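Repro:
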Amino acid sequence: MKVTKIVNDDNITLQVAERVDTTTAPQLQYEIDKVTDETNKLVLDFKDLIYVSSAGLRVLLSAHKTMLKKEGSLVITNVSEDILEIFEVTGFSDILTIE
């Protein structure tokens, strides 16, 4: 997994590439934790993400809750059909903001 940070005015985008699974989910959690205090809008760009496991879903739910607690938002963009299907089957499409 590769994570690239992009700062745009008052929001931060993390471009997440490849796979988020049991092995890489802790790294994504670390990258998200590093930036949540810096922004009220966190954008996760999944343009180059090909797979997300249940461990990755837990990280996304945790990030969503963290941003809500600070009255911020988490937005997920550029979701492939395969990843969107995972979100829909698990009900995450009803919880997360997906653009």
